[in-house]
Amino acid sequence: MRGGEEKVGGEATLNKNVLRRIASLQLQGKDGHDQDLLAIVANDPDTLAKWSMPLTKEEREARDNAIFDHWLAGETESEVANNAKLNVGQVCRILHVLRASKCDTIQITEQPPTYNVWNFATCDPRFGGKYGDLKLKDHPGRIPGQAVLNLVLWLTEPFDLVVDPMGGGGTTIDVCKYALRRYQCFDIEPRRPDIGRHDIRQGYPKLPCKPKFILLDPPYWRLKREKYSEDGVASLSYLEWKGFMKKLAIDTYKTLSKGGTVALFIQSFLDEWESGEYIFANYDCLNLFRDAKFKAIMEISVNMTSQNKDFRDVLWAKKNQKLLSIKRDVLVFQKPK
Questions:
Q1: Which residue of 24, 105, 169, 216 is surrounded by the most CB atoms within 10 Å?
Q2: CB 261 within 8 A of CB 155
Q3: pTM of this prediction?
Q4: Of 161, 245, 263, 151, which is closest to residue 210 (Cα–Cα)?
Q5: Domains (ranges, CATH) in the chain?
């Protein structure tokens, strides 16, 4: 065959420009070109000639930005090159140029806070509230995107890999896109197509490299149990839940890069409707992660508003002279270098 042409359907001949144009559209998630492809397979000379032209400047820019987006989403250079019908060297050159240009143009006005008490009245709508034009119902465990952004800006550099194995509504993804961090996010019940399906109880999935930062936001035992999957960790006994957290700590230590950090969102709470006892989940998790050889480096309070408790909770607390908890903690650990 001439010039790297390939047989398609035993009839028409597609050259590299056709394949690259198809790959470019697929990388961008675009469809609507099925009729043209059918015409090419049918050996229509006009359509084949049009599609055989090299990519225009605008098409190359769109393809290059799609390559960057796929790489930011945790794909390796080899995977991107294969999907783009380019060689790895070409993809690396494209990424080198785009990393430099995007770092020059990024406008992030937020800065990591100076103190370790964070108050957010609401969740930032930029992070975790929707996917594209699709508005998603809030995940029951949605955390303020501002808190995730603070952690990412404090603990990582641009293009570091961030992993969230319990990705929920995609808050971590939206923060990483905004702050130019690579990301890999998973969940047992993904609510967005950019979250991979994986059960962290089976360990971490295969990653492109060891991450610099892992964010953990597990169910706080049986808090909001009715809103999670019936066979999830929220349905376990407290002893079983601690067993899950112990394994999570060990698996996270194995997965994280040396010197990397992990932030664990956790909440101790008054188990008012069942045991009536105060569950010190934060201290139990602190010990579990220390047992896994992590070094604890910071405790952060991410306070919630009183609206998180309904009138039944308030009446019960007053009647029984108990204090309701509206304080959520972030425990930050580091893996020794």
A1: 169
A2: yes
A3: 0.86
A4: 161
A5: 6-105 (no CATH), 117-334 (3.40.50.150)
